[in-house]
Amino acid sequence: MADRLRAAVLGATGLVGQRFVSLLARHPWFSLEAVTASERRVGKRYGEAVEWYIDEPFPDEAAELELRPTRPEAVRDADVVFVALPKEVAAGIEPELARMGKIVVSNASVYRMEPDVPLLNPEANWEHIQLVKVQRQRRGWSGAILKVPNCTTAVLTLSLKPLLDRYGLEEVYMTSMQAISGAGFAGVPGYAIVDNIIPFIKGEEEKVVRESRKILGRLEAGEVRPAGFRVVATATRVPVLDGHLESVVARLSKAPGGVEEVVEAWEGWRSLPQELGLPTAPERPIVVRREPDRPQPRLDRRTGRGMSVVVGRASLPLEGEPLLRYLVLGHNTLRGAAGTGVLIAELYYKLVEQVF
Amino acid sequence: MADRLRAAVLGATGLVGQRFVSLLARHPWFSLEAVTASERRVGKRYGEAVEWYIDEPFPDEAAELELRPTRPEAVRDADVVFVALPKEVAAGIEPELARMGKIVVSNASVYRMEPDVPLLNPEANWEHIQLVKVQRQRRGWSGAILKVPNCTTAVLTLSLKPLLDRYGLEEVYMTSMQAISGAGFAGVPGYAIVDNIIPFIKGEEEKVVRESRKILGRLEAGEVRPAGFRVVATATRVPVLDGHLESVVARLSKAPGGVEEVVEAWEGWRSLPQELGLPTAPERPIVVRREPDRPQPRLDRRTGRGMSVVVGRASLPLEGEPLLRYLVLGHNTLRGAAGTGVLIAELYYKLVEQVF
Amino acid sequence: MADRLRAAVLGATGLVGQRFVSLLARHPWFSLEAVTASERRVGKRYGEAVEWYIDEPFPDEAAELELRPTRPEAVRDADVVFVALPKEVAAGIEPELARMGKIVVSNASVYRMEPDVPLLNPEANWEHIQLVKVQRQRRGWSGAILKVPNCTTAVLTLSLKPLLDRYGLEEVYMTSMQAISGAGFAGVPGYAIVDNIIPFIKGEEEKVVRESRKILGRLEAGEVRPAGFRVVATATRVPVLDGHLESVVARLSKAPGGVEEVVEAWEGWRSLPQELGLPTAPERPIVVRREPDRPQPRLDRRTGRGMSVVVGRASLPLEGEPLLRYLVLGHNTLRGAAGTGVLIAELYYKLVEQVF
Amino acid sequence: MADRLRAAVLGATGLVGQRFVSLLARHPWFSLEAVTASERRVGKRYGEAVEWYIDEPFPDEAAELELRPTRPEAVRDADVVFVALPKEVAAGIEPELARMGKIVVSNASVYRMEPDVPLLNPEANWEHIQLVKVQRQRRGWSGAILKVPNCTTAVLTLSLKPLLDRYGLEEVYMTSMQAISGAGFAGVPGYAIVDNIIPFIKGEEEKVVRESRKILGRLEAGEVRPAGFRVVATATRVPVLDGHLESVVARLSKAPGGVEEVVEAWEGWRSLPQELGLPTAPERPIVVRREPDRPQPRLDRRTGRGMSVVVGRASLPLEGEPLLRYLVLGHNTLRGAAGTGVLIAELYYKLVEQVF
């Protein structure tokens, strides 16, 4: 294997694809070699075909890449393939890529709940990466599929992990206020969302319920035993460009010794990605703001280059009950998609392949 | 008493004041005689002094009224006085008006929790109006102070009342997404709220907790015994002009026989204001939308001329648990302020004075 | 011909289609009999198939209409057909309908510049309706095609007409700030327009240039001689739901005797639709606001039920030059589309058919 | 004079003040020593007193600075004083500071039109800095007052300068679409601007008219002879956070040899700040975008770290006429305020003091 790993992005012109390209264009370990798009854009230069709408400068390194068709054989030269495709398209391509020996790091929701597919929010459950062995054994693949969680779930589970470890979790009530970018560039019409909220995102609540229990589950004998807490999730879409804000009430198994104790549990929490110094890992996975009016999406979504989640307004509202109330914010296309995707790939090469 | 009751609005140029003026300008029972404002506007005609920003046509009937100072003696000629003032200003004026014999219907938060002051969301607790007698006895007033609830609480308690009656209530977890108008015309800077959410509204959560228990409490021996359920409230401000949306999880005392049963309980519910045919009472206090993506603030806030609350997305998310999830929307300056104020006055004159 | 004329709306589920349905559902002359949509919705009831997003209550009268396919033979029973279709679809259907004897009132841009097709902004050029005779002669149709102007042009030309008549026009410099609804429900992605302006609308500037000269041209010997003034148009899209605002500098042929004289020319102006009392004609085609900060889209777009244009900030900025500066606002899907469409039909039946 | 110049910011907690602090905190020549605020914040640490709302990370270097009162004697230790105060407050302070020997670089509008005060948009009129000599002679000051232009004017004049030099200018028609931040943090209520445009900004149009002629005027015998072109300006406020977009039609003195020639004139243009390599000077003062739909405020306002203006959509719309149409965008609190302020200070120390 070469000095730098060759990376491809499938679906490189969408919002998540643009984030992948932005993160990979100057990555210390990966070299972005291939980008793909839908048929009508194939053959064009990335720099001219993409409508660059994200809040990062366009990476000139990617400008000259020629858009390839979104097919397995088109990325034969890649070591690692990042997938930012609709689930229907991803479903057919990903197993084929894994069979070809590719490391497939995918943001598509398909296969997330397969027992032998790791669903990784690295700081929360890096050890699930061992499922790769099971997957290869069972499927006979030389590559592997690794999944990025649903965006809302990625933000939520990061905030829950230290709570689960320290206090145990019984129930989680969550209402999300999700950014427009979560639906992709053209997913939410301007006429629908200005001066409005849409209190429904198809399939989202189900994903939060089942994915959070898998992510925070325990790996035992080659299987993930889902965590036992129950989740009630209500997902809404708000007129915000980037950053999902989540209002959470968590019923803990035992009462904390005060809010400050919880805050310290969050603030002091580090995990393997921090210890390994993975390039995309934020210094602090969870940043706690003590001002009464934070986190705010526009002000806080870039915290830790979009890879930290920001927690605020923690309180124990019902005397004598182990009930914790807080808000948590995360960047939905970084921590909730492409950033976590790149972090997963870094974890894989460091831990499994031991390349770096 | 004359055919029509003479009404005054204190603080008539603000957003809630404008709603009062709009509702009273053509009211069948009340005749708008007086409007007041802060010093610098006194003496001007209402039509030239007000910046009419609400989504109702300006009522020409009010154009020629001369703005009076915001002082008790300035509205000596009024029978009923509607108050849309900051609580600090209202605190000094309201008792004085009640002493002068005025019926004071107030949107200011001060005095809401006084034991002898009725806090009225008429469909939910019209019988609390009997506190007027206690109040007069205790204070020696010939008039009375009647209070409009906090806007978020007004919307919430209307949706809770049929649940409480039928199933009992143990706990309520609520996250609100509140409109800009809730802070008054200049209360939320444009630079703070575009592409953003502010997850904090000073004093709001405390109001929801205590007012909802008073409103849904039982009147016994001249006192309101607060309802026993517990409330965890998280209040946020979103880039929406009008209409508060609330995401609710209610732990009921006994399990409903299915979601449809709950929906029918809401839809079939009528109360005294409907039976009496009060002019401002909506035909249906609670409207249930069955589409998966409703209620939406922009589309639903005008339902029942802004006096209905709109419920959607009801579900029983945890099998075997009496836990009800839903969203409820209400117009914050109509059902949540001026509309309920006018409805309270109608109730008072119909029921207590028996004028109509 | 029956008492009431039978009307159909082609493309009834889009934003302009919804406006047509809303205006026709309770129209005194027209009876809405047929609505059409694209294939996947055919057969459904209008009330269940439409996503009603406009700021009018849904007209229950239209709820039970069954959606028909968008084909000429599907509206055989209609007298007048209102077209709210993309121009590519309209191009094939409209001539066929005219051949079948239908009065086709169309918002589609195709055929607007055909010499024998009247392009009508009724108050500005009602006399162009005489082109119907030329059209029938030339094409051998028993029906006719009548065109609604481009939305921006409709607003602009209404404000220009009294200026042209009184002072003559040399040049017009216009910058538009156009609402999201002008692109249709899903035409502008939320991610593109929040906290942004898009300074380009495909084909719009060309339409303003050529259509304004046709509309304000003179009918001579069965032909429209375009007005001679020149137009420089810059079109932008802004985060506003409804209402196009236009900043105008007009070089007049002779200098006005002061701004007040111009204001009076606008305010006093009435035209044939007002004299005939056509149901959809606003009392005043041009409303002038004298406040320094008007017109504002959200506050003024409903003026004259969306059929008046609102002018403000008129000034003569360069001493000694016949240069008039002002802003004009109009509701883009009422005055700029469906409202003017219905007004055209009213004019036709009153004037040409002399039915009413 | 020390190695690094000691800088103070008056009015450091407002939006423009925050930009000054952000630019100065890590500036190679200036050392930020003092920040001032209004009375109620004096004595607090900057880091705790400021509500940091701009899209730059908070500069930790400034966190511990203690807020001083906004008075001349409070910044006695500064060499250069940057002023981000309302004009009424600035009026009394600035002459006093200049008398004390301070270099006062001010964003306040007061004194901008004084004949001996340089109004500097450095790339456009750096040579006006010679007025400092006149000012000192006339006033007997050892310091000096240097003025930053009005934000809209700064953006406009940068785009006009190469046109004036090459083709001459007769008339300029400009409509601005200005960002919310132009009015300061709380200057535009959220309720006024969501789903709306306010077509009026007090005093703005007059500033554009007179300041643009001064900036582009010629320095002769110690006086600025205003440029002779006439300006018609219409200023509007739009729901955009940062970035003023301006739609311009310029009547040139002689016709360009085609649009491409004009584009090259803009793109090739460099001025003294670029030649001197001033730290805050953008590499290219004018960036031309060739896509049909640019510049867009959200996508382009950060070009050249907010110091470039971005031009697009240039055309010669009227055949045979020397009329140029284009749009220009600039960051209103960087190029239009604090960024230009810092650039002026750099120019002064390099050119007049020859310190660097």
Automatic annotation (TrEMBL), chains A, B, C, D:
Residues 6-132 form the Semialdehyde dehydrogenase NAD-binding domain. Its EC number is 1.2.1.11. Keywords: NADP, Oxidoreductase. The active site is at residues 151, 244. SMART domains: Semialdhyde_dh. Signal peptide: none annotated. InterPro entries: ASADH-related, Asp_semi-ald_DH_pep-lack, NAD(P)-bd_dom_sf, Semialdehyde_DH_NAD-bd, Semialdhyde_DH_dimer_dom. Transmembrane segments: none annotated. One of its GO terms (biological process) is methionine biosynthetic process. It holds the Pfam family Semialdhyde_dh. One of its GO terms (molecular function) is protein dimerization activity. Belongs to the aspartate-semialdehyde dehydrogenase family. This is Aspartate-semialdehyde dehydrogenase.
